[in-house]
Amino acid sequence: MPERPTSLTAGGLSADDLAAALAPRSSPLTGKSLSVTGLRKSYGGTTVVDGVDMEIAAGEFVTFLGSSGSGKTTTLMMLAGFTEPDSGTVSVDGRDITGLNPGKRDFGFVFQQYLLFPHMTVEENVAFPLQLRGVSKAEIRRRVGETLQAAGLSKFAGRKPRELSGGQQQRVALCRVLVYRPPIVLMDEPLGALDKKLRDQMQTEIKTIQRELGLTVVYVTHDQEEALVLSDRIAIMKDGRIEQFDTPRGLFEHPRTPFVADFLGAANFLNGKVEEPAADGCTRVRLDTGGVLTAREHPCVPGQRVRAAVRPGKLRLVSAEEGCCTGTVETAVYVGSLTRISVRLDGAAPGTPPLRIETAVAPPRVGERVCVTAEREDVSVFDATDGG
Ligand SMILES: Nc1ncnc2c1ncn2[C@@H]1O[C@H](COP(=O)(O)OP(=O)(O)OP(=O)(O)O)[C@@H](O)[C@H]1O
Ligand SMILES: [Mg+2]
Asked: Where are the membrane-spanning stretches (predicted)?
């Protein structure tokens, strides 16, 4: 079999082989479903997780994405049982496990610090969870050998963690979890310490293993791209709450809050007022700067003050057309495959940030007059008083 380009070890086996070696002989391994209701946690009077509800399907890859301090780790630690929630429940396949200690949950954990035992060899590290579970010596030898071979780590079996590279250590950490085939794996920024290239490779490895073993994974990161690459669904967290729990496409195309629109892809916000409804059912927003943006139908009433949100890549430069917004190009920076432009709209109030536009075709020059518009599918409309 040709070696996959993502394989971490020259001559080592791929993630597919690792997955195949770890899969049980008889029945296919599948993850379990996870249900969370009303999870809350406060520290010293400050609420850090504020009512998290989510249903995670068996075999799903779910990521908590949010800025520092938004409550991602605390939520994960409550799922794991390391942190006791003030209220709320955690269930696995419908069974309430809220009171169960971490050792009894049979979850796998992978954290940013590999937490390998420094005094143990690679082999001993990977064997450890099986020893805890009372697996026979012969079976431990067989499974550890198989796992290390599949991970391309056999030749490092006798080494201590400090004698391995970061990527190799991370691989050992992953083996140590997968060797006992936990139905649910929780990972907190497991790739945070790796450089970009290695991180990209490990993302592919993790995704392949998860998919082939059908594991349920709950993952924490503050790296947007990583979340998009790995996840079936992403929970965007802010101030201890889930702002939106959706597929990557759902989050991009139908952000439900201004925060989500801005967090993923830095939206432009334009203030305006909703016009009388037209026959096509679309929502039209007359902008304060002049011009009209047409959006899909949104639940708002004529006259309502709103903020329309459009991503930089979705604003289009057009030759003068009815309702378009006119302005002047302030900056134009070529960044490889596209040009980033900022446009000062005519009539923009002082202090309003210029529009950010990304275009791959015929970028205008600084000082040029332009007309800006957007397709209705690319315009989201929020009430003007919505925070974010
Ligand atoms: N044991 C603790 N005692 C007091 N406050 C805590 C404790 N653990 C977490 N916090 C606070 O709870 C908030 C959420 O922390 P948490 O670690 O869940 O954030 P996070 O989203 O994982 O952030 P990061 O991306 O920086 O890891 C933070 O303001 C943090 O200071
Ligand atoms: Mg954290």
From this structure: none
Residue 18 confidence class, pLDDT cut points 50, 70, 90? low
Q: Angle, to 10 degrees, between the axis of helix 166-178 and the axis of helix 15-22?
A: 20
69 CB less than 6 Å from ligand 1? yes
Contact status, residue 143 vs residue 152, Cβ threshold 8 Å: no
Instruction: Choose the residue to mutate in 39, 42, 64, 74 for probing ligand 1, maximizing ligand atoms within 8 Å of C-beta.
Output: 74
Q: Are strands 61-66 and 233-238 parallel, antiparallel or unpaired?
A: parallel
pLDDT of residue 11: 33
> What spacing in Å lies between the alpha carbon of 224 and ligand 2's midpoint?
14
pLDDT > 70 in the chain, percent: 91
Calculate how far, in angstroms, residue 74's C-alpha sits from the geometric centre of ligand 1. 6
Q: What is the pLDDT of residue 8?
A: 36
CATH number belonging to the domain at 15-253, selected among 3.40.30.120, 3.40.50.2020, 3.40.50.300, 3.40.50.10230: 3.40.50.300
CA–CA distance, 284 with 275 (Å, rounded to integer): 6
Specify the residue with its C-alpha closest to ligand 1, atom 31.
69
> Which CATH superfamily includes the segment(s) 266-383?
Nucleic acid-binding proteins (2.40.50.140)
Render pLDDT for 137-185 as a digit per residue (tens, 0 to 9).
999 999 999 888 877 789 999 999 999 988 788 889 888 988 887 889 9
Instruction: Report whether residue 221 contacts ligand 1, using a CB cutoff of 6 Å.
Output: no
Taking the centre of ligand 1 as the mean of its atom positions, its distance from the CA of residue 43, in whole angstroms, is: 9
Ligand 1 neighbourhood includes 73 CB (under 6 angstroms) = yes
Q: How far apart are CA 180 and CA 130, in angstroms?
A: 6
Residue 68 Cβ < 6 Å to ligand 1: yes
